[in-house]
Amino acid sequence: MDPPPPPPPPDAPDGPALPPSPPRFRPSPPRPPPPLFALLAPSFPLLPTVKVNVLPPEL
Questions:
Q1: What is the span of the domain harbouring residue 46?
Q2: How many domains does the chain have?
C-alpha cells in the first residue's frame, strides 16, 4: 500500500549518458573529411579524361 516512488530510474541513465557524449563528438569531426576527399578524387580524374576525349574530335 506504499505510494509509488519518484522517477529515480530515468535520472540514473541520464547521468552516465552525458559523460560519453563529449568524447563521441571529438571523433565525429575527423570522419567527415575522409568522405569529401573520396568524392573529389574520382571527380578530378573524370573531368580531365572527358575534356581530352572531347578535344581531339573537335580538332
A1: 35-59
A2: 1
